[in-house]
Amino acid sequence: MRIKNLMLLLIILVIAAIAVTGCIGDNDEDKVPANDDIGKIDREKEAVYNDCIECHPNQVKAMRMESSGLHSVNACNFCHVQHGYIPACSDCHGLNHGDVIINCQQCHIESHAPRNINFSMEEGNYSCSMCHTDEANTLDANPTKHTNMTCLTCHTEHGLIPKCINCHIAHDDNTITDNCNECHETGHIPTKIKT
To answer: What's the whole-model pTM score?
Structure first.
């Protein structure tokens, strides 16, 4: 019971701290806009962008291009509550990947467009295996030709699951190549056949 009370107190303190620092916004209106206020909010955001873009064009451009991320719906001053303040990603997001990865920019190369994840072939499989441990363990436990390849050989973009036929040819004319996993356990262990 005492832990629940401490957690409730902690939540109240965090909400109060966010409200005091302006992390929720800097006006006194309700923070969830009504549909007829959307245009007003967009104009206010655009005004902030126009102030910031003179000195920070790359960051504003990244936020505008990141249409699927939540960063693109906020103006610069949502995170940068005063000029020069650079928040830690964990201020809002916490350590999403546990305490294994504490440097967000290790994978998210542009904090203003966090869904833009970019790895290089030189890194090998190290960066991928920090989050994709099951896949890395599967490859290590079941050595095949795929084991010695970098993840980026097949997964050219983060989250992309390619079709095997992009590299491999069908066994014969009767083989259905659209779904190799009907017979093969997984692309990470193509030599293991389902029974």
So the answer is: 0.52
